[in-house]
Every structure is written in structure tokens, then in C-alpha cells.
Amino acid sequence: MVVHAAAHDADLSPDGVDRAAIRRVMRSKAGARLSLWLSICSRCGQCAEGCHYYASNPSPEHVPAFRLKPLFELYRRQGEVDREFLERLRDIDYGTCTMCQRCTMYCPHGIGIAPLVHAARGVAVAAGMIPQGLAKGMANALEFGNNLGVTEEEFLETVEWQLEELREEMPDADAPVDKEGAEFLLTFHPRDIKFYPQNLFNYLKLYNAARVDFTLSSRAWDSTNLGLFAGDVPTATRLAERVVEAAEALRVKALITAE
Amino acid sequence: MTRALYDLFAGPLALGAFVVCLVGLAVRGVVFLSLMRREAAAVPENVRWGWAGLSILRYLLPVNVTNRVNPLATAAGFVFHAALIGGALFLSAHVVLLEQAWGLSWPVLPGLWADVLAAAALAGLVVLAGRRLLDPKLRGLSEPRDLWLLLLVALPPASGLAAHLLAPGYEWWMVLHVVSADVLLAAIPFTKLSHALLFALSRGVTGSDFGKRRVGPW
Amino acid sequence: MKALGFEAPRWLGRSFPFTVLPPLKVWADSFAAGKLPLVKGHHTGPVTFQDSCNFIRNAGFFEESRLLMRHVCTDLREMHPNGNLTYCCGNGGGQGLMPEYKKQKLAALRAKAECIRATGAELVVVACHNCEDGITECVKTYEVAAQVELFSGFLAGCIDLSGHTAQD
Questions:
Q1: In what order do the strands lie in the sheet with C123-126?
Q2: Do A40 and B195 touch (CB under 8 A)?
């Protein structure tokens, strides 16, 4: 009985789909662009030329507009969809798109297919169907401030270590951490720190060679955003906010983003 | 009876169809713009009108990347749109009706053009429909109403042409002509045909977005 | 650029008091201003450049990338298509973290592999970490005889250190 009541509260269908959550995210996505784009896609297929999935393997499900079909159907049915439908949406919108935006260049109407795929992914997130790899990276990013789970101590040690290496060939090199008023805030992909410190070395070498006035933030140095890939806007917002706040606190003129 | 039907569909119901079309499109445009304005309250939209205009122009003329890679579809689409809109606006029979009804008038095309334009529009539509039915990528994409809409768009030029070329049944062809034209007009705001207006908004927004980032008008 | 440069203001609902730039823009500006000493023609082998959607197609930094590449390479070979129209590296949108869709991802890289092969380049320079993985998997899967290197490392190897040898 308890399960039953809970199911009722959350508008859970017997197959475990939280329709209320799906409708909430549908409402939040239904902005000017989405409504416009979903209603004028003419399914002319010109976007096929834009997609590397299609270029490599020309099958109908690799036409970019095909990725809009589940979203289109979802709005038409006002969120009344079952698990099977959502699994299909997930496999199409996570599985066959890199959101590279090339198709938009070929769309006569200029439809932003990537933002619509992003919206569809957001629906999958609301349905609890986020791919495990992305979910794990996001959990890391929320807990540690970077998606590989590097601690602040490890980060600072790596910077120190690479700076020492760099000074062997560039004695005047520096890597100021949390220096207020610097012109640039330098950020990284976490693997530059965890797996390929040589990358960090190269960055420091370039900025020192150019005598750029830069700084690093000890708490917000990962500018990747898995929330963007996942279509999870609340998480994406929290991750971006951390970097934005660090840049504001350090009063930099520009933020250099890793990707 | 055909006369009465014709008068009804070419008269008051035609007016109704025009009103539905124009008011409907206006509402869709206003809804879009007000949503845009609401979203811009938090972050300024910072529209780049120049890039927006360039982007619209680029995709109204066959000078864009899509046209280079898909010449057949481009030719069919271009001929179809130009012939349909040109015919609807500049055939003498249409302008005469407008003049009688509302006193509006503008230069018209010579009579011969009526058949040429109708045939060209239909030829374009046949290519588009053929692609939709035969090309696997479009078959996978298409929904039934994509074909129904093609048929609806084909009816006015087809019946107009038939009325002119086939002497018997002229009155019935003309009835079909005005009925289908009314339905087509009224359907514009409620279907993907709304791209008649919304194309410019969508292209403009995308052109502006990418102009802002210095990528180009796309 | 997509996350912090373009989407973040919408997510957070406000504009920021700083601009967001990709590294290659800062390097190109420094170089153009004569502040970044790069050895001209340092790389003599055949090289091509992967135009990342983050920095090129979605952010418009094509010219900046070529300014640097043309200076440090003597044999820069463009893919066709390139620039805004280049094919995706295959690894965008989180494809690198979704092993369940890896088969489709690799299948979709065929077009890119042929573009790279046609250049005859022995090295593909990539400006984005996602591209680094995508292109590495691409050349491996389709047996293209090319190495992959990040733009940062590629340029860091061309720095003229003469101004930095002595303690200031």
C-alpha cells in the first residue's frame, strides 16, 4: 500500500515512469526556440547531409530530423508516454548524436537540432534514464569540483610539480594560484591534471612564454560540463556557477575555457 | 449549384480563410516574440539584425551550402515555391477577384503564365513527393500528414490547370480550385506550412546566434 | 565554449562581468601582438587540423587557428570539408562517456577517417580534448597512418625560449 500511495503522489505509472517529472521538464524546455522549431520542421531531410552518422552510414535513423521525432511525439502526447517510448528516446538522442551542430548549417529553416536533442536528453534525465558514465562523471564533478574526482591538494601538488619542471627550461615561469585581479583565469579538462600533467606543463609554458597575466583557481579549475552533455540543466547550472563565481571573485577580465 | 458553391468559397469563405491565415500567422509570430522577450529579460538577446537578415537572404536564394549538395531537391523546392507564390499573387484571374472584392490591384502576368506556373509548381511538387516516397531517408522521416499536405498544396494549381485545359467539368474544377485554396490558406498557421512566416524568424534567430559568435550567417 | 561561453548566462539567468575565451584565441591574439614567440616552420611534416565544433563551428575561431597553424607548419593540409563544415570528431555530446553507444560512434567516424586519409597527413592536430579521443579512435579504427596531438602540445614544442633562458 505504501508503494501504491507513493506512486500516486509522483504520478508514477505502473512501469515506473514519473510523468509529473517529465511534464515539469517539458514545461521548462518549451521556450521560444523549441516551440518554433518543433512546429516548422518540414522533415525535408536536407539535414542528412550535415550528419557524420549519416555520411558514414546512410540509414533513415541517422537523419538528424529523425532525432526530433521522439520529442515531437512527446509534446503531442503531452508527456503521456511509457517506458519503452522513453528508452527509445534515450537511445536515439544519446546514442546517435554528438550535438556538433553541423546539421543546422544544412537546415533551410535553421533549426537548432542540437538544442532539441539536448532538450530530449533532459527528458531522459527526468525519467531517470541518464547513461551511467555521464551520471558518474557528474556525481564526481558535484562532489569534487571536477569530473575525475581530483582533490584540491592533488591539484595544487600537480601544478607545483609541473611548474618546477617548467622552470628547468624557463626559469622565470610562474603559476599564480588565486591571484585577484589577474587578466585571465585559466581552467582545464581534469585529465590535464590527473592523467596527462604534460598538458598542464604545455599550457603553463604557452602562457608564460606569452607573458600573459593569468591565475588558476584552487577550487574551480575544471571548465568541462558533463551536465551540458547529459542534458541535465540543473546540474549543468551548478557546475557552471562554480567556475563563474570563481572568475567573479578573482575579478578576471576573461575566463579561458578548456573546451 | 456550382455557381452558388463557387460564389460562397470565392467570396465570404475566402475572406474567412484569409483572416484565419493572417491572424493565425500573426498570433504565432507574436507568441514567439513574446516568449523571446520573456527569456531575454534575464539575459539580453542582443539580436544581430544584420546577420539575421543575411541568413534569411541566403536561404531564400539558392546560394547556400544545402543547395550545393542537393541540387535536385533545391531546384524542385525553389521552382515550386516561386511558381506557387508567383501564380497566387500575379495571375490576372486572382488579381481581378481581389479588385472586385476589396478594390486592391497590382500588375499581373500575361495569361499564358497561368498554365506555365501551375505546371511548374506541380512538377516541383511531384519531385518533392517522389523523393518523400522513394528516398529511404525521407520515408523514415515522413509522417502521413507530410503527404496529405503535399496533396493539399497541389490541389489549387492542379484544379486551376484542369479547369483551363479540360473544357468539360470546368465549373466543378473551379469549385475544387477555390475550396482547396481556402482550406490551404486556413491550414497554414496550424501546420508546418506556418514556415511561410516562421521560416524568417527561425532563420533570423539562428543567423543572429551565429553572427554573435562571429561564425557567420550560416 | 558551449557550456561557459554560450549556455551559462542562460542557465544562471544573468550576464557575466568577464568574457569567455578558448585557449587558441588567447594564443592567437598574443602571437598576433608579437608576444608569443613561436618558431616559424618548426613542424615540417604533413599536418592537418581538426576544426572542433566547440571552437570553430560554434564559436568562429577558424582564422585564429589557421594563423597559428600556418606559422608553425610548412606542410599544412586541409581536410575537405574543413572549417565550419568539417565533420565532427565523433566524440562530442558526451559520446566518450557512453560505452553503450560506442559501436555507433565508431561506425559514424568512417567519413572523418576518409577525410584525414585523403590529406596524407601524418599528424592530426586537435584543439579539444573530446576531439583528441575521437580522432584517436577514428585513426585507429580505420587504420589511418596518422598520430594525434593536442594543439597546446603542438605549439608548446615550437616556443622560442631565447627570451627566458636567463633569470630575469
A1: C47-50, C123-126, C147-150
A2: yes
Q: Is residue B217 part of a domain?
A: no
Q: Residues of A with CB below 8 A from B33's CB?
A: 32
Nearest to A19 by CA among A114, A90, A87, A83: A83
CATH of domain A2-129: 1.10.1060
pLDDT for C86 beyond 50: yes
* B134 alpha carbon, distance to own chain's centre: 23
Range of the domain at B119: 2-211
What is the rounded distance in angstroms from the CA atom of residue B80 to the CA atom of residue B127?
Answer: 10
Considering only A49-58, A73-82, B97-106, C48-57, which range has the smallest mean pLDDT?
B97-106
pLDDT digits (tens, 9 = 90+) for A197-224: 999 999 999 999 999 999 999 999 999 9
- The span from the CA of A189 to the CA of A224, in Å, is 6
Is the separation of the CB atoms in A46 and B132 below 8 Å?
no
CATH number at residue B124: 1.20.950.20
Q: Would the CB atoms of B213 and C14 count as touching at under 8 Å?
A: no
Higher pLDDT, A130 or B218: A130
Inter-chain residue contact B210 with C60, CB threshold 8 Å: yes
Does residue A9 have a pLDDT over 60?
no
Q: Percentage of residues in chain B with pLDDT exceeding 90? A: 83
Nearest beta carbon to residue A37 from set B138, B140, B202:
B202
Which three three-digit cell numbers place residue B45? 538577446
Q: What is the pLDDT of residues C17-29, one digit of tens each?
A: 999 999 999 999 9
> Predicted ipTM?
0.95
Sequence spans of domains, chain A: 2-129, 134-256
Q: Which residues of C touch A59 (CB under 8 A)?
A: none
**Cβ contact, residue pair A53, C104, below 8 Å:** yes
Determine the distance in angstroms separating the CA of B218 from the nearest CA of chain A, rounded to an integer. Answer: 6
All domains of chain C in start order, with CATH? 39-164 (3.40.50)
Residue that is written with C-alpha cell 467570396 in the block: B11
